[in-house]
Specification:
The complex is a heterodimer. Chain A is an alpha/beta fold. Chain A has one domain: Rossmann fold (3-Layer(aba) Sandwich). Chain A is 28% helix and 32% strand. Chain A starts with a strand and ends with a helix. Chain B has two domains: 167 residues, Rossmann fold; 121 residues, TPP-binding domain (Rossmann fold), CATH 3.40.50.1220. By secondary structure, chain B is α/β, with parallel strands linked by helices. The radius of gyration of chain B is 21 Å and the shape is globular. The chains are: A alpha/beta, B alpha/beta. Chains A and B meet through helix 3, helix 4, strand 9, strand 10 and strand 11 of A and helix 2, helix 3, strand 7, strand 8 and strand 9 of B. The complex binds flavin-adenine dinucleotide (FAD) and adenosine monophosphate. Flavin-adenine dinucleotide (FAD) binds next to helix 5, helix 6, strand 16 and helix 8 of chain B.
């Protein structure tokens, strides 16, 4: 089985978000970049497929060389090959189409992307790729079994979950539940050494124009001070929720 | 050039977010001097969409009763073509996000998710959306001729706007299903985090799963959904589906109670889009007090049962 895991390179979850150049650019200063958490769950699941039923696992990023350390980390965790399409990931449309163009010539049985990235939060890349490639697609995927060409996937819905049966090739939008937090692999020394020997291909991008661009970022208004209510005056809380906040 | 809105229903009943997307589309249509066409699939009362401003409803009934993202996006594509729309509005539900990417690709459209306001029209149209997991907004410029906007839950609200909706039976060509549902488990009788107006969320401060009774009871009295912090679901005290935050479910509810939750940056990122936040915590230094609107410094095991008793008297969950 050939698996491709799409990796978004995102600010660590503890990052303070600031903008520069008139609020048009994200301030990367002092920010640590990591594998997008949803992609990390997907990568771990892919490595389990490799360990349990045999598979090759490639990781793919659309972007510039500043993401290379993140891709190397994915190799150290256990991916076999890293691919980077060298262009700016302006929007999800560009990312999805760049990857889909590559996949048209280099087909995979299973493509794993994250449900969404924690920086752009677009949530469109996996579905768009599936549509362009004509692959089956299961989003918010919290369970996946593959037997031959048949896949059984569990999808989390707003008020429950469903199990879907379909055929490979398949794309999933991964999230926590596909594997658990405690299953995530931290690269060890051996993995890091091996990663240096693994293939890392930089691929020229096709000409694709973005459908959307970010013109400006804005930080939310600082919050007004919390109103403290005495623990023995719960009537006041109810009164405020009813008459001030008007939410009860 | 009608604006096309995709509405959702569950067991034949329109969902709250259906009224929200139609209200949003109506406000937009008024501005653009055009009309609103709503697509309703497997819906018992499509005419209700007229109460919120739908001028026309395309009504379709399918032979299978569940959501199928590939089929639904195909139906939506045919509806867009028939209506000659260049703008599609959908919600931010799990189903809407499931089909949005597929739909955008089919229509060769720009897709903007998590939209929190009406677009600003000009030489370039821009839309305000949430990014960086609710830590910031981005103003996104649309370049394509066809666009899909995903409206963030509770960002706009439903606004009654009585129109006599013309309901038309819509008969699209339905392709064969490539995916089949073989099992479904629905948490029945309980509000889901995505749909609830109120969410009662608790963290490690509750000390153990055996203590969740007071949280469940408070939620029931409020007709609220229950949620939890990440460590609580990691330790198996509560199901994963209740984990909220940056790496869990996003919460954009009207009222969010955080009980025994410290307010780590990753937790806040996921729940910040909620309108009013109430924190109950023994530690006055807990970071959540900086993010909350109302706070009680107190022990959950003392405060929550007393609060529940008082809330019972309001009879909120029963209305
Ligand atoms: C990559 C990454 C992603 C993460 N994503 C998420 C996420 O999506 N969601 C999330 O929630 N977390 C996330 N976290 C974890 C986050 O950093 C915090 O560890 C977590 O939110 C803390 O959970 P908590 O508030 O329940 O527990 P604690 O931090 O242990 O806080 C417990 C709180 O309960 C209070 N308390 C104790 N006893 C009582 C009592 N009797 N009554 C009232 N209050 C009491 C304490 O004062 C304390 O403030 C993530 C972390 C990482 C590294
Ligand atoms: N620049 C990128 N390169 C590779 N994959 C990406 C990139 N951006 C997003 N993705 C994938 O698409 C998923 C959803 O991202 P987004 O649409 O930004 O929310 C991510 O979890 C990744 O798996």
């Amino acid at each position: 089985m050939k698996i491709l895991v799409c990796i978004s390179n995102v600010p660590d979850t503890t990052s303070k978000i600031n903008f520069i150049e008139n609020d048009t650019k994200f301030d990367k200063q002092g920010v640590q970049f990591v594998i997008n958490p949803n992609d990390e769950f997907g990568l771990t699941r892919a490595i389990w497929f490799k360990e349990q039923q045999g598979a090759t696992v490639d990781v793919m990023h659309v972007g510039r060389s500043d993401a290379d350390p993140t891709l190397r980390k994915a190799l150290a965790i256990g991916a076999d090959k890293a691919l980077r399409i060298d262009t700016d990931a302006t929007d999800g449309f560009v990312v999805a189409n760049q990857i889909a163009n590559f996949v048209k010539e280099n087909p995979y049985d299973l493509i794993i992307a994250g449900r969404e990235s924690i920086d752009y939060n677009g949530g469109m890349v996996p579905g768009m790729m599936a549509s362009v490639l004509g692959y089956a697609f299961v989003n918010t995927c919290v369970g996946l079994k593959i037997d031959g060409k048949e896949a059984v996937a569990v999808r989390e819905m707003d008020g429950g979950s469903e199990t879907l049966k379909t055929q490979l090739p398949l794309i999933i939008g991964a999230q926590k539940g596909l594997v658990e937090e405690t299953d995530l692999k931290i690269p060890n020394m051996r993995g890091i050494m091996q990663a240096r020997q693994k293939p890392f291909e930089v691929i020229a991008a096709k000409d694709i124009n973005a459908n959307t661009t970010v013109s400006k970022f804005e930080k939310p208004e600082p919050k007004a001070h919390v109103k403290l209510i005495a623990a023995d005056d719960l009537d006041q809380l109810i009164d405020l929720l009813q008459n001030e906040a008007k939410v009860l | 050039m009608s604006i096309l809105v995709l509405t959702e229903s569950e067991n034949g009943k329109l969902k709250k977010n259906a009224f929200e997307v139609v209200s949003y589309a109506k406000a937009l249509a008024n501005h653009q001097n055009t009309t609103v066409t709503a697509l309703a699939i497997n819906c018992d009362e499509p005419g209700e969409l007229g109460n919120f401003g739908a001028d026309k409803v395309l009504n379709t009934t399918l032979t299978f009763p569940y959501f199928d993202a590939l089929i639904y996006s195909e139906i939506a594509t045919q509806a867009v073509k028939q209506e000659g729309s260049n703008l599609v509005i959908i919600s931010s539900s799990a189903n809407a996000k499931y089909m949005a990417g597929i739909l955008a690709a089919k229509l060769d459209a720009g897709y903007v998710s998590n939209v929190v306001d009406l677009p600003v029209f000009g030489a370039h149209t821009t839309v305000k959306r949430m990014a960086f997991s609710n830590k910031a907004f981005s103003h996104t410029t649309l370049h394509a001729n066809m666009n899909v906007l995903g409206l963030s839950t509770n960002a706009f609200g439903a606004a009654e706007n009585q129109v006599n909706a013309q309901v038309i039976e819509f008969q699209p060509n339905i392709p064969d299903q490539t995916m089949t549902q073989i099992d479904v488990s629905q948490t029945t009788g309980k509000a889901s985090i995505a749909d609830a107006d109120i969410v009662v969320s608790a963290g490690r401060g509750l000390k153990g799963p055996e203590n969740w009774g007071i949280i469940e009871e408070m939620a029931e009295v409020l007709g609220a959904a229950t949620a939890c912090s990440k460590p609580v679901s990691d330790m198996g005290w509560r199901p994963h589906s209740e984990h909220v935050g940056q790496t869990g479910k996003p919460v954009a509810t009207n009222l969010y109670f955080a009980i025994g939750i410290s307010g780590a940056i990753q937790h806040l990122a996921g729940i910040n889009a909620s309108k009013i936040k109430v924190v109950i915590n023994t530690d006055p230094e807990a970071p959540f007090f900086k993010a909350a609107d109302y706070g009680i410094v107190g022990d959950a095991f003392d405060v929550v049962p007393r609060l529940t008793e008082k809330l019972k008297a309001l009879q909120i969950g029963s209305v």
